Amino acid sequence: MSLIRTIKLAAPAGLGIKSGGQLLSKILIASGFNIKDYNEYPSLVRGGHNTYQVSFSDQTIFAPHFHVDLFFSLLGGHWQAHQSEFSKDTLVFGDEQYSSDDQGATFLNLPLKQLSEESGSSQTTNTICLGVITYLYGLNPKIAKDLIVGQYAKFVDVNLKAFDLGFHFAENNFSRFNQKLSLPAAKNKNPVLCDGNESLGWGFLQAGGNFYAAYPMTPATGVLHFLAEKQKESKITVLHPEDEIAVANLAAGAAFAGARAAVGTSGGGFVLMDETISFCGIAEIGMVFYLVSRPGPATGLPTWTGQGDLLHAIYAGHGEFPKVVLAPGSQAEAFKLAVEAQNLAAILQTPIIILSDKYLGESSSNVFDFCEVKVKINRGEIITNPPAGYRRYSLNTQNGISPITFPGTLSGEFLSNSYEHDEFGFATEDGELAKKMTAKRMQKQITAQKLTPKNLLFGPKTAKKLIVSWGSTTAPVLEALKDLPDYVFLQIRTLWPSDPGLPKIIKKFKNITVIENNQTGQLTTLLKSQFDFHPDRQILKFDGRPFYPEELIEQLK
């Protein structure tokens, strides 16, 4: 029986909720545990209600849990919104006098204001909480202190003092809980903390990516920040142009010139890239688009999560042309699919979209060290010594892919623009030629079906019921599956082009449930457009929050 615990910190923005939460995740990983974390915050620089929660286990854990074991209110009044997450075993800590009428948890006074003043800084309440947690769970304080030194280089002394103050206060006041909460020894195999955006960045780097452009847009900005920090050591180009139109066009130009290029944005910025996506389709330029979704329409909920951009991604760009849409279900998978996306862009010479969201992009997990992973890099069919009369868009192809040259290749020049064209790239309005060229390009869609990542099936072979889902919702479904022996889970990793083998898998089951983080069941709509698909039920959520395993278990049972 695996141990699973959840710790949650809550406070206004500006009190170090994120830095404290990330440090907590690192301490737990360094102590041998597997973790999944998740943070929520309003679109405010200061104030509001921010949370950071970490679920951890000595065994594999796929998603954060709803029910909280330790809750820390870094400023008074930040626990009331979470009472549904408490149980009789929950310990709630905060700098306020709790009423004896409070039910559903044990409330304990933690004088954070006083202790932070003793430490020398009012900004150390998060570190004080880490000291309390370390004591209560019997973790090694040296591990925690070493990580504090690494994270707070400019404020080491006050944070080490704050940690000790929290640790000793818990030792003197909460010792009755120490024996009960003490954890068994654990040893994980994946020692690095990484969120989904960083995972995409690592995949881009390891796959030979060398040109990245983005305009900051939550929740995709993390990819830009990560790659900007790696720019010098990795010898790549990272640009922050004036808007998303410039972003996409700059990257298309770089890809045309031979770069392995990618861009990142969320839904509102992706709309502005639509014309470039079409341009890449007709000019046969391979580049990668990271679409890290948040709820719309318009600005919507800019710091929350949702899967409402699925059909937007599938049908991005006007006209008909081949594209690929991939959806990772974890941080490790985000790395792997980012590698595959760069290779597919080079091979297929067409837009490749990776569809993520805030939940995956800004949540972390312990993963293997991506910078040590050796990956296979495929640069596609490049001609360095083209024959006389080279035809860039040659119709003489079985798979729709015409060999490419890059600028500067002797005798490899060709014309590339947004018009329909002949085999040399010259504009044409000839109907028969347009039909042939369109068919040639669309042949790549069939080629893509053979090259794109396969969909995955999880669960016991004896199960009679099927769950179908995609993207970040994979994580809570897999966690829920531990308590759902009657169910098998089908994870759709390649959303487009549709896998022709899906009907054969799905028809084996008489009871089918589709789970999505959107309002209209977009995966169901997509699958219905491809084959005879009639799920028995849909479980949909569209309030900006992800699914928790507990709510899925409750609904599915």
The total strand number stands at: 20
**What's the CATH superfamily of the largest domain, by name?**
Pyruvate-ferredoxin oxidoreductase, PFOR, domain III
Low-confidence stretches: none
CATH topology of the largest domain: Pyruvate-ferredoxin Oxidoreductase, domain 3
Domains counted in the coordinates: how many?
A: 4
**Class based on secondary structure composition and strand pairing:** alpha/beta
Q: What proportion strand? A: 15-25%
Q: Give the terminus-to-terminus CA distance.
A: 21 Å
Side-by-side strand order of the widest sheet: 9-8-10-11-13-12-18
Structural shape: globular
Number of helical runs?
20
Fraction of residues in helices?
25-40%
Instruction: Give the overall pLDDT as a whole number.
Output: 96
> What is the CATH architecture assignment of the largest domain?
3-Layer(aba) Sandwich
Can you identify the CATH class of the largest domain? Alpha Beta
Characterize the biggest β-sheet.
7 strands, mixed
**Radius of gyration, whole Å:** 26 Å
